[in-house]
Amino acid sequence: MATIKLEIVSPDKVVYSADIDMLIVRSTDGELGILPHHAPLVTGLVPHAMRVKMEGTEKLVAVGGGFMEVQPEKISVLASVAELPEDIDADRAP
């Protein structure tokens, strides 16, 4: 099965980088599913938990808004805030 490279970057660091099967995100225009070889796209993102599907599993990545650029072989997410669930500090979160 084909995969697509996903890179999620916040101002502080690269939060996530891997080859994935599918990404489900909530854009400013609604929910989108991105598969390998998707048509080029640029969209804004609203705060939500992105769903990363890879090898039959699903991983969540929290984003606090930002932008996403999709090319046929790569997805780039530039998030104002992004964290993996295991990195979220409940005492620090608003």
UniProtKB/TrEMBL annotation:
Q: Which GO terms describe its molecular function?
A: ATP binding; proton-transporting ATP synthase activity, rotational mechanism
- Which residues does the UniProt record annotate as the domain ATP synthase F1 complex delta/epsilon subunit N-terminal? 4-82
Record's bilayer topology term: Peripheral membrane protein
| Protein localization | Cell membrane; Endomembrane system
User: Key word Cell membrane present in the record?
Assistant: yes
| The entry's keywords | ATP synthesis, Cell membrane, CF(1), Hydrogen ion transport, Ion transport, Membrane, Transport
The record ties this protein, via InterPro entries, to: ATP_synth_F1_dsu/esu (IPR001469), ATP_synth_F1_dsu/esu_N (IPR020546), ATPsynth_dsu/esu_N (IPR036771)
Q: Does the keyword Ion transport apply?
A: yes
Return the Gene3D superfamilies for the record.
F0F1 ATP synthase delta/epsilon subunit, N-terminal
Q: What is its main location?
A: membrane
For this record, the Gene Ontology CC terms, alphabetical, are: endomembrane system; plasma membrane; proton-transporting ATP synthase complex
Which family does the record assign? Answer: Belongs to the ATPase epsilon chain family.
Q: What does this protein do?
A: Produces ATP from ADP in the presence of a proton gradient across the membrane.
Xref: NCBIfam families: ATP_synt_epsi
Subunit-structure text = F-type ATPases have 2 components, CF(1) - the catalytic core - and CF(0) - the membrane proton channel. CF(1) has five subunits: alpha(3), beta(3), gamma(1), delta(1), epsilon(1). CF(0) has three main subunits: a, b and c.
Name of this chain's protein: ATP synthase epsilon chain
